[in-house]
UniProtKB/TrEMBL annotation:
Pfam families on file: AraC_binding (PF02311), HTH_18 (PF12833)
Keywords tagged on the record: Activator, DNA-binding, Transcription, Transcription regulation
Cited Gene3D superfamilies: Homeodomain-like (1.10.10.60), Jelly Rolls (2.60.120.10)
Name of this chain's protein: AraC family transcriptional regulator
Residues annotated as domain HTH araC/xylS-type: 185-285
InterPro entries cross-referenced by the UniProt entry: AraC-bd, AraC_XylS_family_regulators, Homeodomain-like_sf, HTH-like, HTH_AraC, HTH_AraC-typ_CS, RmlC-like_jellyroll
Entries under PANTHER family matching the protein: ARAC FAMILY TRANSCRIPTIONAL REGULATOR (PTHR46796:SF7), HTH-TYPE TRANSCRIPTIONAL ACTIVATOR RHAS-RELATED (PTHR46796)
Record flagged with keyword Transcription: yes
Amino acid sequence: MLIGDWHEMTPTVNFASRAATDYKAQWGPRLIPDYQMYYVASGHAALLLGSERFEAAAGDFLFYGPDCPHLLSAEAGTDYFSLHFSWNAGSPVPIHPAPRIRDYRVLDVSLPAAAYAISLPGYGEVSVPHRFTAHGQEPLLMRIVNEYRQERPGFPVMLRALLMELLGSIIRQLTDQSPQEAEKSRIAPALDAMREQPGRSWTVSELARLCGYNPSYFTDVFRRELGKNPKAYLIAERIRQTKQGLLRGEKPESLAEKLGYTSVHYLSHQFKKETGLTPGQFRQHGANADEP
């Protein structure tokens, strides 16, 4: 299930708490009206979703949504955070989920757990698993809980901001663990080569050979992972290094020679095509030239 486009989301906290139990606590079988993240600070928890069971230890999150009949349990001696939220809501004002939670007598163990993903522009779809580890989130979770409890002036907007920070951090960690990143690491030798020798006229065959691919497959992987072909990436890298050189005070003539341009006029032409500014205008505007 595709939850939506991350850049267009307006998430809202509906409920946030930190609690501890010294006995086995159980919630469900039930169906909730929103999404829930359950974070184990210490101890152990388990989540039953249809035919699947997910175990969580300290540092792990459990995650599920409104279309997932489930049974959640915390073992003895468990300290945990519970966060109910909506991915998209017009208002940041929390809507407590309790009145809309529905009880189930038994779970249908023949059904697989629903799969979730977020569309991340420029990257692709990021899977959000039912159990995952995301380091360093406990202080932010505590800030969300305190903001929710205290209800200080403007707290709904503050909750939304904190939730966006939490979700953004989690999504970033999930991308680092994803198969896409593993694939991207396989074209890293080509990326490193173009960064280190941007003045060289790299061919697709040479770059593909560095990564152990044939040229056709290499080009497909490159375009899929970066959204552009190797030639466009090399041009962008040359422009990036031209900017850095100009800001260091280097002359366009020396940059043209170092970065593989046939002449300073060609460098100026391509630089203006990519940035809207001539090298001289960029240097005059300085570091602010990249800002809208």
